[in-house]
């Protein structure tokens, strides 16, 4: 109940947020048209930031709402909000002429941080496919995609990961699952226990030698001999540096022996009598009573002294314990305070994962998310039960009502027109139109009959004259339409010329700013306010059960429609009987009405009529055989579980000022790639959100292209189809079109799917190298657009993803035709390089010093070395032997730099090579081409201005 109430409160706040965003939309429409691009950018970026927050809130509501009817409303809102957010982002890209957009000004006005506008993975991803197809894929043993040897994702798995050994050839041998983290903890615990026991043994031995009076003494004729031993911290392995240890299983306390006969030795447990002070003799004679009384007093005094001495010892012990505890607690609090202060100041990052409440929250949300299927099933059962109840209780009465309404319609026509109108066909609406009163009335029928009689009385000249007048009116209408079209075309041409000369004028009331997504969002929230006005979402229905009144109304309409279809033929037969009887009474010949055919779709003539395609999914064996064929050809492959967060990189914090105030073209940050790719993937889920058909990732070797490919597959839950040149090489050229059709057919069956092509430039070589001539790479580029890209429909959850590290080797035209988006991965800047080094060193635990100079390391390597080279360098330097030396030889920055220079030499991703990517990208990407042209014009204008200023000074 508490969770339902919390979700209801959050939904109410989100609905208010929707109203606030819509009010901002209406406010933007009241702004006067302007030519200032900065004003447009500020307004659109402000609205974009608001929509990002709204999409996040709606995503959380859709994820945690169990009430099915409310979830359907939220789904429509989420879909419209996502579409509108992507439209605003596209508008920002058109304004800035780049895929990388910066909204720092809006963040400052709205008091947000960059993480608040970063795209997150929606709750409906990864998508789930049918159990049948998923079981078919899981039952096949797939090979992993080859990510190359230089990408960032080639790093070995962490030691803390659970590694499952490969399945042995013997199926009877069980698969052993090793928990390496547990093994490491057990080994560390054994080592600590060994050291602690040895330390306690050394303490006992020292106390025995320094304080023999407090322990059992030993005989004079027996000596304690040192025992030779070897200490091993791990069975079967000797330490690299031998260290003297103490055997902790030897009892230093000697056994008790009978030494009473020795005059010079006192037996164990023997206590010497307490020496008392000499008492002066009292010559006076005491009575026995006095002697007895004095003895009792002495015993009482002695007992009091012993009790006081015991109490003093206890007090001293308690004081010592308290003193030690307070000192320990003070040191612990001070140490923790220093740690927290250093962590807050950013002096180091906590290498150990800390337990927070976020994991508990995630578990609660996941448990609530799993209950969605239960509520959906209960909703479907409620619908079926309600429909069955309506058919059982109201079905006969509804049939009678429909029949009575249609027969009353017959009576009305007979009384007023002395005829019977034809009942509309089912594709026209059937008897539903009669009940609604949307058919022809008897008076209209009589007017039509009278007009027909008048038309028969007209002469041929009158008919010809009327036909000419109608034809002239039609031609005049067509002429007006053509003139209006030409006028609009001329206005558009004048507008483009004016915009080219004076600059574009942005009108916020035009469709480019007021889209269908905004109208849909406004309509859905208005209908929600109307439908849920009388429902208290906080107090009522804590169990989140469906509202039965709405189900009853919906099923009543559905049952009514079905019953209309059932009685249609019966009432149609009654009408024919009545018409035959009327013709017999009027003594006229009966003409049965002609059966009307449903209208044919436009553009579907007889010549274009095609047979429906065969359903290849009807035969399960055919589907299995197709999947087995692709598995045998190594087309279907598995991939590692990666996310876009694994692509390490920071955003650019100075790009907004440089682009919008200094009019410079800044270098984008690596962290912005995550938001761009997620904006492409919203359409891979169950929502109807636009997405590109194909993406091409460009960048030097080792920049993380394969990692991004695996992250796209994992986050969307897609099946990976590898169409690389090496995979397609064994396929003969004559069978290649059929092979691509098979890949596309299976991809549609198991969608969402990702068709991956690594090294796409090999398929479009300008000149095929000799080492690739045998594989015939050109056959893939020849058929790729026609058989894959062109066949993809907007509703298909299929994405074509390609990568390339040498795109200038390919033909520009054919490659540009196959891909909608070309994304050039940026070079690591200072912030991204710092994060890369932190990530690379954090994998080796607490042995790496926290005060290592990452700033100097990042300054020396930024923009020069890729993520893959940095990770490979840390693996090679920080081997097992080097990590064992951390205690006496801390890690130095020079070791990492020396290793980088030794292994790579010249920087492969240096500025000169990266300029080749930038130059090629500006040829194929539309926004990049326009951005390059704009920067060139700005540079020429700046040079002209400087020349004029120099001439004026002279």
TrEMBL record:
Biased composition range(s): Basic residues: 590-607
UniProt-annotated stretches for the region Disordered: 144-177, 589-616
GO molecular function: ATP binding; ATP hydrolysis activity
Record carries keyword NADP: no
Bias (Acidic residues): 149-169
Protein name: AGAP011743-PA-like protein
Pfam families with a match to the protein in the record: AAA
Gene3D superfamilies reported for this sequence: P-loop containing nucleotide triphosphate hydrolases
Family annotation (CDD domains): IQCD (cd23767)
SMART domains hit by this protein: AAA
Domain of life where this protein originates: Eukaryota
Keywords of the record: Coiled coil
Taxonomic source organism: Anopheles sinensis (Mosquito)
Residue ranges of domain AAA+ ATPase in the record: 691-829
PANTHER family: IQ MOTIF CONTAINING WITH AAA DOMAIN 1
Residue runs in coiled coils: 443-502
């Amino acid at each position: 109940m508490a969770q339902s109430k919390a979700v209801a409160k959050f939904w109410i706040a989100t609905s208010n947020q929707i109203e606030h965003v819509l009010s901002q939309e209406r406010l933007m429409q009241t702004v006067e048209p302007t030519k200032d691009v900065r004003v447009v950018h500020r307004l659109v970026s402000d609205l974009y930031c608001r929509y990002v927050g709204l999409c996040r809130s709606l995503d959380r509501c859709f994820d945690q709402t169990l009430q099915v009817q409310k979830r359907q409303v939220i789904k429509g809102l989420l879909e419209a909000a996502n579409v509108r957010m992507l439209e605003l982002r596209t508008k920002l890209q058109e304004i800035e002429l780049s895929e990388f957009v910066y909204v720092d000004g809006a963040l400052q006005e709205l008091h947000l941080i960059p993480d608040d506008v970063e795209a997150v993975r929606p709750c409906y991803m990864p998508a789930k496919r049918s159990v049948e197809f998923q079981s078919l894929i899981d039952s096949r043993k797939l090979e992993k995609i080859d990510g190359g040897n230089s990408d960032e994702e080639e790093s070995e798995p962490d030691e803390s990961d659970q590694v499952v050994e490969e399945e042995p050839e013997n199926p009877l041998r069980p698969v052993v699952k090793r928990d390496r983290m547990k093994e490491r903890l057990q080994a560390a615990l054994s080592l600590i226990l060994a050291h602690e026991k040895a330390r306690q043994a050394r303490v006992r031995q020292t106390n025995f030698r320094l304080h023999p009076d407090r322990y059992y003494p030993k005989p004079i004729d027996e000596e304690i001999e040192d025992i030779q031993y070897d200490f091993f911290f791990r069975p079967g392995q000797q330490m690299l540096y031998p260290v003297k240890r103490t055997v902790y299983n030897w009892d230093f306390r000697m056994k008790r022996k009978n030494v009473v006969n020795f005059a010079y030795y006192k037996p164990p447990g023997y206590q010497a009598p307490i020496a008392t002070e000499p008492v002066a003799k009292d010559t006076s004679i005491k009575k026995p009573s006095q002697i007895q009384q004095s003895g009792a007093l002495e015993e009482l005094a002695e007992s009091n002294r012993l009790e006081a001495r015991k109490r003093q010892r206890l007090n001293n012990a308690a004081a010592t314990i308290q003193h030690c505890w307070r000192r320990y607690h003070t040191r612990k609090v001070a140490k923790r305070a220093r740690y927290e202060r250093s962590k807050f100041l950013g002096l180091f990052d906590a290498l150990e994962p800390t337990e927070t409440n976020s994991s508990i929250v995630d578990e609660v949300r996941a448990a609530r998310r799993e209950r969605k299927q239960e509520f959906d099933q209960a909703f479907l059962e409620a619908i079926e039960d309600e429909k069955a109840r309506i058919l059982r209780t109201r079905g006969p009465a509804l049939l009678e009502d429909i029949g009575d309404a249609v027969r009353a319609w017959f009576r009305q026509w007979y009384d007023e027109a002395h005829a019977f109108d034809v009942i509309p066909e089912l594709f026209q609406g059937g008897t539903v139109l009669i009940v609604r009163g949307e058919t022809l009335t008897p008076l209209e029928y009589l007017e039509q009959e009278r007009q027909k009689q008048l038309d028969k009385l007209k002469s041929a000249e009158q008919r010809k004259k009327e036909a000419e007048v109608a034809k002239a009116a039609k031609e005049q209408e067509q002429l007006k339409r053509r003139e209006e079209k030409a006028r609009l075309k001329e206005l558009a041409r004048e507008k483009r010329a004016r915009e080219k000369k004076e600059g574009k004028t942005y009108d916020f009331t035009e469709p480019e700013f007021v889209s269908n997504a905004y109208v849909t969002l406004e309509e859905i929230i208005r209908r929600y306010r109307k439908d849920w006005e009388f429902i208290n979402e906080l107090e009522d229905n804590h169990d989140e059960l469906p509202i039965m009144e709405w189900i009853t109304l919906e099923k009543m309409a559905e049952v009514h429609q079905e019953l209309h279809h059932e009685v249609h033929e019966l009432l149609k037969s009654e009408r024919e009987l009545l018409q035959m009887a009327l013709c017999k009474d009027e003594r006229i010949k009966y003409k049965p009405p002609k059966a009307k055919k449903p209208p044919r779709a436009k553009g579907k003539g007889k010549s274009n009529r095609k047979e429906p395609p065969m359903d290849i999914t009807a035969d399960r064996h055919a589907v299995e055989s197709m999947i087995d064929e692709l598995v045998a050809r190594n087309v279907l492959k598995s991939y590692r579980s990666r996310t876009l967060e694994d692509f390490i990189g920071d955003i650019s914090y100075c790009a907004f000022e440089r682009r919008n105030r200094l009019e410079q073209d800044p270098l984008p940050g690596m962290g912005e790639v995550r938001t761009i790719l997620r904006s492409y993937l919203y359409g891979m889920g169950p929502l109807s959100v636009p997405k590109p058909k194909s993406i091409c990732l460009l960048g030097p070797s080792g920049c993380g292209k394969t990692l991004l490919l695996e992250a796209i597959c994992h986050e969307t839950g897609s099946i990976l189809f590898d169409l690389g040149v090496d995979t397609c090489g064994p396929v003969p050229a004559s069978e290649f079109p059929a092979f691509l059709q098979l890949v596309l057919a299976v991809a549609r069956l198991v969608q969402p799917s990702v068709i991956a092509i690594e090294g796409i430039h090999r398929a479009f070589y300008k000149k095929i190298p000799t080492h690739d001539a045998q594989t015939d790479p050109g056959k893939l580029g020849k058929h790729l657009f026609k058989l894959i890209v062109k066949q993809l429909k907007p509703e298909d959850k299929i994405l074509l993803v390609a990568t390339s590290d040498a795109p200038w080797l390919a033909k520009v035209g054919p490659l540009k035709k196959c891909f909608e988006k070309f994304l050039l991965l940026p070079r690591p800047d200072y912030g991204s390089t710092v994060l890369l080094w932190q990530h690379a060193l954090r994998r080796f635990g607490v042995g790496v010093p926290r005060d290592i100079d990452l700033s100097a390391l990042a300054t020396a390597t930024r923009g020069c070395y890729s993520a893959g080279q940095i990770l490979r360098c840390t693996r090679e330097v920080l081997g097992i032997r080097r990590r064992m030396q951390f205690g006496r030889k801390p890690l130095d920055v020079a070791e990492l730099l020396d290793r980088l220079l030794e292994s790579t030499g010249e920087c492969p991703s240096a500025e000169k090579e990266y300029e080749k990517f930038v130059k090629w990208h500006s040829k194929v990407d539309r926004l990049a081409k326009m951005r390059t042209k704009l920067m060139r014009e700005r540079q020429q204008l700046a040079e002209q201005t400087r020349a004029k200023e120099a001439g004026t000074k002279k």
